[in-house]
Amino acid sequence: MQTAKRLERIQPSFIRDILSAASESNILSLAGGLPASDHFPLALMANPMAQLAHDPTLFQYGETQGYGPLLSHLKEHYSISEMHRMLICSGSQQGLDLIARAFLNPGEGVAMEAPGYPGALQVFALSGGMIHSVAQNVNGPDIAMLETLFASKKVKMFYAVPDFHNPTGVSWTLEIRQKVATLCRQYDIALVEDAPYRELRFTGDHLPMVSSFCPERALVLRSFSKIATPGIRLGMLSAPAQWLSALLKVKQAADLHSGVPMQSLLLSLLSNPEFPSYIKRLCQCYGERYQALANALESYLGGAFEFASVQGGMFIWLRIPGGDPLDIAKRALSKGVAVVPGNAFYHDDFLPSEAALRLNFSHACPSTLREAVRRLATLLV
Predict the structure, then answer these.
(1) Structural domains present in the chain
(2) pTM > 0.85: yes or no
(3) pLDDT value of position 322
């Protein structure tokens, strides 16, 4: 049977392909955006998980919007705007897909930072949306370029990751957050704020979400993969009340509702009085692993290969002047180390200004990170 024509626009995910190779026992991986599996909060989940079997109501069909007690907890925990309503998704990736299918017609435009999250590039392309790239700098998106694009009326939404951006690790300044919110209001643009890494800050001060400055124009995606476990496949989407009905229609057509037992388990974890201490320890772990990777890069590569410091998240964006990222990534596998080439994070409409690799520090221990960089250096130095 012939595939749908819209699928012809979608390129296979190089990251998923390289993750397959990185799973081999002889490969040290700096590639995937994997949380630290040795720090999963399984001890906090063990008793609630055992208790699931004693409540058969959790295994019946559930509400499309989500498990009521969990929604109530999240509303209070995240201080959700009174303008917003919530929807539990099967991972925040599904939330992004629901947004695209509910609000994008073929040919309508979406603004994205460049480089940007490949999963968003795939979702918007599959929906038939036209992606318009906006250059990113050390403080966030290029505001002048963004306003020019908004004023052109070529886009109806702006997708962004303001906290510890994937792939660069950039966190927007307060000034940029306020300016973007002002522009979204001025030009009637919907902001899609993706916040999967927001709680993974290991240094610096927390900043308000961009959506807090324009809640009536914002859809917010949160992921529990990074603070609970990826395997539970749960995320949350919040949006203005008048926009939620469209999202619910698409969610019903997609999978009726997300798994109720896992939603109950997530509620038990998030409401556990020991959970804040767990998050604090996790951030400390990531801070130590980030420093280990940064120190190894400086030790083995010197000043010729630059990267900006980050205050949280999972990634370092390593600039490689004059190099071919895709070729380096392929040859790195032969040296027993997996990395993701910067090419994977750009749409076809944008020519990268720099060659780069995305390196993950959250998954591996410090000694493994150092050895991986040593192997990588044999190709770069």
Answers:
(1) 5-41+276-380 (3.90.1150.10), 60-270 (3.40.640.10)
(2) yes
(3) 83
